Predict the structure.
Amino acid sequence: MSGGEKEAMAEVKEWLVKTFEGAGKSVPEFEYTPRSVKHLNHLMTLSKSKDEAARLVARDFRLKASEYRSQAARIREILENLGLAQESLPSNVVTSAQVLANVANLLNIRDTEMSSFLVAMGDISLRKTEVEEKRAEVNKESKLLLDYTRKAIARLTYLKRTLAQLEDEVAPCEAQKESWETNLKVMAAKERQYNQQCDNYKRMLDRSGYTPEVSHGILVEMAEHRKELEKKTKPILDTLRSYQDLPPDKALAALAIEDKKRQYADAEKYLEDVLQSALASSE
């Protein structure tokens, strides 16, 4: 701790002792830290400044009281010389004078002149006007706050009702959520299964020699050619079957069979050429 901090701590301790002794109490035990000493030093400075201001005000009041007492003694002496002492006045006059003095003290005026009362009454009228204006503003703010409060209460009621509805919907939503979670698990398992099957099918296609060139369009085109060839070969097959119903003539039958075999071979060769040309065009 530096020298300045030690000096400040000593001043704070001395001030605390004087303050608590003036109140008839002892200083409580606590730890003097730099932070607490700084805070107490600030309080000590404020307290000393306020004490000094209070002393100045008290001295001024004492001076004024002394002046008022001397002036009152002088006025009493004058009134006694004129035969207007308080003891010689009627009780109603004394009462009126006391009421007048009390009103002057209440209005915080130095004398009981009519002009002083008029100025004080004007000041009171101005203060009354200010108070009425402030009261009007406060009433306006109160009405506005009351309106806001009503709206807030209505909003709170609506929110409570909404909260109750949501709480009632929690159980069905939880059940639906659990159902969705179960369905998601099933779908995830199906997805893994389908992916595995897809991989298996790809491997099967790879093993079977599938290539991207053997596409659906090419297969459809080859099927159409096959149908056309079947239409062309069907009459030939029908003719062959009709020959089977003829009486056996070995020579003619052999010629006919050879002719049909040749036509059938030509048709097969044509089909094979078409297929080869289709594959070649796709490549």
Helices lie at 3-22, 34-81, 91-107, 114-208, 216-244, 250-282. The first helix runs from residue 3 to 22. The mean pLDDT is 80. Residues 1-86 form one domain.
